[in-house]
Structures are given as C-alpha cells and as structure tokens.
Design goal:
This protein has helices at residues 37-43, 46-55, 61-73, 79-87, 94-109, 123-148, 162-171, 177-190, 197-207, 212-224, 231-242, 248-257, 277-291, 294-311, 318-328, 335-356; strands spanning 21-24, 29-32, 35-36. The radius of gyration is 22 Å and the shape is globular. Strands 1-2-3 form a 3-stranded antiparallel sheet. 57% of the residues lie in helices and 3% in strands. The chain is mainly alpha-helical. It starts with 20 loop residues before the first strand and ends in a 24-residue tail after the last helix. The structure holds acetyl coenzyme *A and oxaloacetate ion. This is Citrate synthase. It comes from Leucobacter viscericola.
C-alpha cells in the first residue's frame, strides 16, 4: 500500500451512511433528521430534540409528554451511582467521574444479562437504555460539581422541564428564563454532529456487538480530549490566562510564536466557520446582557477577530459555549460533562443506527515496522 492511499486521521474518508444528521461545510448547515439545527434551537425543548434524534420525527404533544414522564422517573441519582462517585477523590476530573458513573449504571443494568452474547440488546431495550442514561446524566454532572464545592446533593424537581431541572440540581435555585433558554439552546447545539471522533468511537464499540453503555463509556473517553469536547474547558483556561481584551494581541503574539493551538478554533469539517456558532454566540449575548458582563463579550470578539485575521481559522461551538457556561455559573471543569449530557442523545441514536445495520468496523493498516527477522539461536 503506498503512502498516498493512507488518510491520516481518516480525514475526508466516508465510512458509512447515517440518517441522524447532515453536516454540510459548503452551505455551512447542520440538519438533525432534516431539520436545521438553528430552527430546532429556536423552537424546541431539548427533550423534543432527543426524541427526534432517536425516532426520526419530532414528537407529538402526547409523545413529548410520555418522554418527559419517563425522563422524570430516572432523574434521581441512584444509590449505587452516588456511592461510586463518593469513592472518587475530589481531585478526579469530572469527565472521569461521569465516565465511571455511566459504567456503574451499565454494570447494574446489565447485571442479569449473563452472557456477552446478550449484551447488544434489542432496539426496544436500547431505546429505553438511551432514555435512562439521558435522564440520569444531569444529576451526575450536577452532583459532581456540588461535591467539589462542598455542597449537598439537590434532589430533582418534577415540576421542572429538563433544562430548568438541570440548572436547579446544579445550583439549588430556580434559574431565570433567559438562562434556561440559553442553556436549552446549548444542549440542542451540542446534541449531534455526525461521525465526530466520540460518535465514531461509540460506533466502533457497537460494531463488535458490545453493549450501549460500553459504547457511551468509550465515547466519553474520546470526548475528553482537548482536540474534541475538552476544548470548551480549554477555552476558559485560555480566556482566564488572557484576562482582558487589552491583552489579546500580546498574548496571541506569544502563543503563536510558541506554536500553541488556540482551543475553540478550527474544525476538521468546517473550514469557513462552524454552523452552530452564530446561534450559540447569540445565546452568549443574551447571557452577557443578563449578567451585565460586557468584558466577556469584548474579550470574545477581540480574540476571535485577531485570530481570524492572523490565521484565517474560525471559532467552533466550544468557543461561545465555554464563556456561556462560565457566566451561568458552572465550574470550568464541568463544561465537557455538560457536553456529554447533550451528546448522549446523538451517541445513542448512532449506536442504534449502527446496531440496526451492523458491520464490524475494522480498517487495515500499512506496516512500516522492521522486516521479518528471527530470534537468534532458535527457541529459548
Ligand atoms: C465540538 C468540537 O469537538 S469542535 C473541535 C474542538 N477542538 C478545538 O477547538 C481544538 C483546537 N483545534 C484543533 O486542534 C484543530 O482545528 C482540529 C483538531 C479541531 C481540527 O484539526 P484538523 O482538521 O486535523 O486540522 P489540523 O490540526 O491539521 O490543522 C490544519 C492547520 O491549521 C492549524 N490549526 C488548526 N486549528 C488550530 C488552532 N485552533 N490553533 C492554531 N492552529 C490551528 C494547524 O496547526 C495546522 O497548521 P499547519 O498546516 O501549519 O500544520
Ligand atoms: O464534528 C466534529 O469533528 C467535532 C464537533 O464539532 C462535534 O462533535 O460537535
């Protein structure tokens, strides 16, 4: 196999079909099951988008009510998950905490399944597992942050929808509608993005006929890296390092001289800007106004314009979502777990799609190690 046939990082390689979402860098658009993501973010609760990703259609009022009822049943932290989280040191990264919690949920739920031959589950079982995981994640993320802050667990509230309840469990007070709306939009924008690295990891795991929980655990591992989901956390580290808009030019001179990657910029597929950024930036603007923090908007705009002018590389979704989550009051280390809570919907939609039309994912490699050789003196 010649060098030119190898596509490092599978760049530009089409590996399968998907009907879950369409990313189009030419038209700078993103469709979930045919619907533009901007339209969904402007009109739908996150629960309806989760339903859409799993079922292919937006829910009727009754279907949405049923999903909401089911989601409420699985909102509370279970004893096993709480005990597992409490065993972890407070210094553990929240991504490791959430990964562990999902693993525990899987082990408990799969307890009676016996053989690995039964692991992959029926379509009905996998849809139910998806709903349960999506319902359980907010309490895990919220409790993790509260534990690190030395605060008590807050129980979920049945009278609140997904986003309002998530913020309630994280902060112990009812969030302002402006904040709930911005948060809901961020969940929708983060929910799905075709064959990104974490989704592909989930599909690879699913392709071996492993179970949905194992696939989600693997996806969380892939999402943690700063070249993928970890970038929303990294954006805030960078913004804190820069301090204010006045420092951007000098900071950027040094960072680029040191050949640093500027997190929150660039994308494997979008080369002229991420389709989701304008919607998330608009949500960030509402938060800037709500919290009266023009300094955040100034730093955001200055770093964006300077970096684009110098490198021609545009922000991705993690760039506006990082400061948005910070304004809402989340700890920086909690940002990527928020991404998990949203993306679990897309991951599980892909897991079910992969399972429904499976082929073991096992590409080839070109060997470039030492040529065949033999142990001197024969066998020891
Ligand atoms: C929700 C998401 O997961 S979106 C992605 C979040 N990740 C980040 O924000 C991390 C920062 N960005 C990056 O590292 C990259 O842009 C990636 C990984 C997202 C995409 O990478 P690729 O498509 O593989 O592009 P690649 O990394 O090869 O970049 C091409 C060139 O642009 C440069 N470049 C790309 N992004 C950046 C950046 N953020 N800062 C500085 N330079 C960059 C690269 O150094 C490379 O330069 P070179 O040709 O001189 O070597
Ligand atoms: O598509 C990608 O490579 C990364 C991304 O933006 C996402 O997963 O949301």
């Amino acid at each position: 196999m010649s060098e030119t046939e190898i596509k490092k990082g599978l760049a530009g390689v089409v590996v399968d079909y998907t009907a879950v979402s369409k990313v189009n860098p030419e038209s700078n658009s993103l469709l979930y099951r045919g619907y533009p993501v901007q339209e969904l973010a402007a009109t739908q609760p996150f629960e309806a988008v989760a339903y859409l990703l799993w079922n292919g259609e937006l829910p009727t009022a009754q279907q949405l009510a049923e999903l909401r009822t089911e989601e409420r049943k699985h909102r509370a932290l279970t004893e096993q998950v709480r005990a597992a989280i409490d065993l972890l040191p407070l210094e553990a990264h929240p991504m490791d905490e959430v990964r562990t919690a999902v693993s525990v949920i899987g082990a408990v739920d799969m307890g009676g399944s016996g053989s690995v031959l039964d692991a992959s589950g029926s379509p009905e079982q996998n849809l139910q597992r998806s709903i349960q995981l999506y319902a359980a994640l907010p309490a895990i993320v919220a409790y993790g942050q509260r534990r690190r802050r030395g605060l008590e667990l807050i129980e979920p509230r049945d009278d609140l929808d997904y986003s309002a309840n998530f913020l309630w469990m994280a902060f112990g007070e009812e969030a302002d509608p402006v904040v709930i709306d911005a948060f809901n939009r961020s969940m929708i924008l983060y929910a799905e993005h075709s064959f990104n690295a974490s989704t592909f990891a989930a599909r690879v795991i699913t392709s071996t006929l492993s179970d949905l929980y194992s696939a989600v655990v693997g996806a969380i591992g892939a999402l943690k890296g700063p070249l993928h989901g970890g970038a929303n956390e990294a954006v805030l580290h960078i913004m804190n390092e820069i301090g204010s808009a006045d420092n951007v030019e000098a900071w950027l001179d040094k960072a680029l001289a040191e050949k640093r990657k500027i997190m929150g910029f660039g994308h494997r597929v979008y080369k002229n800007g991420d389709s989701r950024v304008p919607t998330m930036k608009a949500a960030l603007d509402t938060l800037v106004e709500h919290y009266d923090r023009p300094d955040v908007a100034e730093l955001y705009s200055k770093l964006e314009s300077e970096f684009v002018a110098r490198k021609g590389i545009y922000p991705n979704l993690d760039y506006p979502s990082g400061p948005a989550y910070s304004l809402i009051g989340f700890d920086t280390l909690t940002f990527t777990p928020l991404f998990i809570a949203a993306r679990v919907t897309g991951w599980t939609a892909h897991i079910m799609e992969q399972a429904a039309s499976n082929a073991l994912i096992r590409p080839l490699s070109a060997y470039n190690g030492v040529e065949e050789r033999h142990v001197e003196g024969g066998q020891a």
